[in-house]
Design a protein that fits this description.
Elements (H helix, E strand, L loop, with lengths): L30 H7 L19 E3 L1 H10 L5 H5 L4 E7 L4 E6 L7 E5 L22 E8 L3 H4 L6 E7 L7 E9 L3 E13 L2 E12 L14 E14 L5 E16 L13 E19 L3 E18 L2 E20 L2 E16 L7 E16 L3 E12 L3 E14 L2 E12 L6 H6 L13 E14 L2 E13 L2 E6 L2 E9 L3 E15 L2 E15 L6 E3 L6 E11 L3 E10 L16 E12 L2 E8 L35 E11 L3
Parallel strand pairs: 4-6
Antiparallel strand pairs: 1-5, 2-3, 5-6, 7-8, 7-31, 8-9, 9-10, 10-11, 11-12, 12-13, 13-14, 14-15, 15-16, 16-17, 17-18, 18-19, 19-20, 20-21, 21-24, 22-23, 24-25, 25-26, 25-27, 27-28, 28-29, 29-30, 30-31
Length: 654
């Protein structure tokens, strides 16, 4: 439950630090010791987390376990309670959502698994809701333009999901959960050593939710779904520092929303919505020492995802494919660490229904990074990448970072530039489909310059962190209606800058088994007004959000926690009921008790019962030009939810 505006330790953000086989998993005796032990996979330099110039926020296994008790079926809760991140619902009909990093659009966020794009170059808006957190060891977040590190899909930031590593003792875990909204989850995790340096794990889950019409208007406020997932992993670690990591995954889901049987949209016609998804992926990460100071790295993955969408009477069949490979060399000499290599990625989309939107992006790229210690308290990191995009030409993405440490103080400064290759899948199209969109014209690549200044203080039980950040985004894409056909839309580049300025503040105090965390995020985001009247506040971007979390936990006994989150007013776009949202509070209470190897838990979310449909209807009086029947979601749509269940652990260490 504690929000993951977590300790701003920081790390070098050059693609994936150590291989998954080397990830540190065991929870240390104290948080201070944890800071000494964590090696982030979002860096290749192999430095300790607190020694790296670029800030990386880490959600550790202990915090992930708290979130599993709240939402065992997806990672949305883990990310929504991370400072500077906002999980934004993009399709209330299906519950789809993406992650906005420091006010930037969700399509700019790159989602990785063990440093590999297993969910595609651009993860779909349902991607967050289809990834169970059962086997995650930690989650790493890099904010700001990271194209210098990860290419065109990381204009706004990177989220890297790191798997748990098998320990030296076979272990297993099973979780059963049920909610007061008729939802159920069942997950299992097994891991074991298989021999000298070899280990394996497998995780699987089944999740379902029935459709719920909470305001009795015939439209589902909570979509129904049925989903199963499975993912085996293999880890090998050689005596000379060589390692190999293999992973594969499969997921199948059927999701239903829109009008319920017998219900109709405001035009008097039924409008069912649905999406059937099948996804299969595989990946590998390998490391081979070359001499005493140099190592060769190889990474590769493939993903195939098939969709069947339904928007009323329109059925869209499509498929997404992503292929990725990368080879690099890294080395260290004294206070200098370097890495350089070559990457190649193919992202393709094929629609059987609307083939005019088919595309294939082929992007070879070369990259490099140099980290240099300048004395005992200063480290400088410079990274750069050149991508040769087959559609948007040659793009150069640099990034420069600086770390200064003295006593209890840590200061980081970072700035960079990145780009994004536009696709048809902006938020409105994810929600309404392609049927009303004109074929894409000549679009320009979206680009951004971002910068941040991070000041941290840690002494004894007290931690504090202040971050100032800013971004200027050019050529952002936007949906606009056609002048000669109000029932059609087109995707265009916006003239002018989207300007974002903001700050994050974290305060934490620890006393024995008790931890209190307070957080506040301010975001001032503006963009050119689509009607040509100067500038406007960026919609669905609250200026003020805050959180207060109190947690007591004792290993082997249990935990209890209270959380309070505040979301301020948000500007709304094309909403017939209001131009500005209401501010609201969300209160949650979590309890867990250990009984031998079993853990019994109960979690109450949104105790105040905040629900958008208590203020206004979710349905529009008439269908929007892009095809949507719903307004944007600016508040929770499910109201109060209570869930409870049991976790069973086998083997391993207590």
């Amino acid at each position: 439950m504690s929000p993951s505006i977590r300790l701003a330790l920081g790390a070098s953000a050059m693609l994936f630090a150590q291989d998954p086989a080397h990830a540190q998993e065991q929870a240390p005796a104290s948080h201070a010791e944890a800071a000494e032990e964590i090696i982030v996979q979002a860096t290749r330099s192999g430095r300790r987390l607190q020694d790296e110039p670029v800030r990386v926020e880490v959600v550790n296994r202990e915090e992930i376990e708290e979130k599993i008790l709240m939402r065992p079926g997806n990672i949305a809760t883990i990310l929504s309670e991370t400072g500077g991140l906002r999980v934004q619902v993009t399709s209330p009909a299906l519950g789809a959502a993406n992650v906005r990093v420091q006010g930037m659009d969700g399509r700019f966020t790159q989602l990785l698994a063990d440093g590999l794009p297993l969910y595609g170059g651009q993860a779909s808006s349902l991607g967050l809701l289809q990834i169970p957190p059962t086997d995650l060891g930690q989650v790493e977040v890099i904010k700001g333009a990271a194209s210098a590190l990860y290419g065109p899909s990381a204009l706004g930031g990177v989220i890297n999901l790191v798997s748990r590593r098998p320990s030296d003792i076979a272990e297993g875990e099973m979780l059963l959960n049920a909610t007061t909204r008729n939802g159920q989850d069942a997950t299992a995790y097994l891991a074991a050593p298989l021999g000298e340096g070899l280990g394996a794990s497998i995780t699987g889950g089944y999740h379902r939710q029935s459709r719920q019409d909470l305001d009795d208007d015939g439209w589902a406020d909570m979509p129904g779904y049925e989903r199963w997932t499975v993912r085996p992993r293999l880890f090998w670690e050689g005596a000379e520092g060589a390692s190999l990591f293999l992973t594969a995954g499969a997921m199948k889901e059927e999701r239903r929303g829109g009008t319920l049987p017998g219900g109709t949209a405001p035009d008097g016609s039924p409008f069912p919505q649905g999406q059937d998804t099948e996804r299969y992926d595989a990946g590998l990460v390998a490391k081979l020492p070359v001499g005493d100071t140099v190592a060769a790295h190889l990474r590769a993955s493939g993903m195939a995802q098939d969709h069947t969408h339904r928007f009323g009477e329109v059925v869209e069949d499509d498929r997404h494919r992503t292929l990725f490979t990368e080879a690099s060399l890294s080395g260290k000499a004294g206070g200098t660490a370097w890495v350089g290599g070559f990457a190649y990625q193919i992202d393709s989309f094929r629609s059987r229904t609307f083939p005019a939107f088919d595309y294939t992006y082929r992007v070879p790229g070369i990259f490099g990074q140099l980290e240099q210690e300048l004395g005992g308290s200063v480290t400088l990191a410079a990274s750069a990448r050149t991508d040769f995009h087959n559609r948007y030409g040659t793009q150069f993405s640099p990034r420069l970072s600086l770390l200064y440490r003295t006593g209890p103080w840590t200061v980081r400064a970072s700035g960079g530039r990145g780009f994004y290759a536009p696709t048809p899948f902006v938020e409105e199209i994810e929600a309404a489909g392609l049927s009303r969109l004109e074929p894409l014209g000549r679009l320009r690549a979206e680009s951004a310059r971002t910068a941040s200044l991070d000041i941290g203080y840690a002494r004894g039980p007290l931690e504090a962190n202040l971050t100032l950040f800013g971004a200027d985004v050019r050529n952002t894409t936007r949906i606009e209606p056609l002048e000669n056909d109000p029932a059609r839309v087109r995707l265009v580049n916006v003239a002018g800058l989207t300007r974002i300025r903001g700050s994050e503040l974290l305060l934490r105090y620890r006393w024995d088994s008790f931890v209190v965390t307070g957080s506040y995020v301010y975001v001032d985001a503006s963009e050119p007004d689509p009607d040509g009247f100067g500038r406007r506040t960026k919609p669905l971007t609250p200026k003020h959000t805050a959180g207060l979390v109190a947690m007591w936990e004792e290993r082997g006994k249990g935990r209890i926690g209270l959380e309070v989150y505040y979301t301020g007013r948000q500007a709304l776009d094309d909403n017939p009921y209001r131009r500005q949202s209401k501010p609201y509070f969300e209160i949650g209470l979590l309890g867990e008790v250990a009984v031998g190897k079993a853990r019994l838990f109960a979690n109450a979310e949104n105790i105040l019962g905040i629900r958008q449909t208590r203020y206004d209807p979710l349905l529009r009086p008439s269908r929007a030009a892009d095809g949507r029947w719903t307004v944007d979601a600016w508040a929770p749509t499910e109201g109060f939810v209570l869930n409870a269940g049991i976790r069973l652990r086998f083997g391993g260490e207590d």
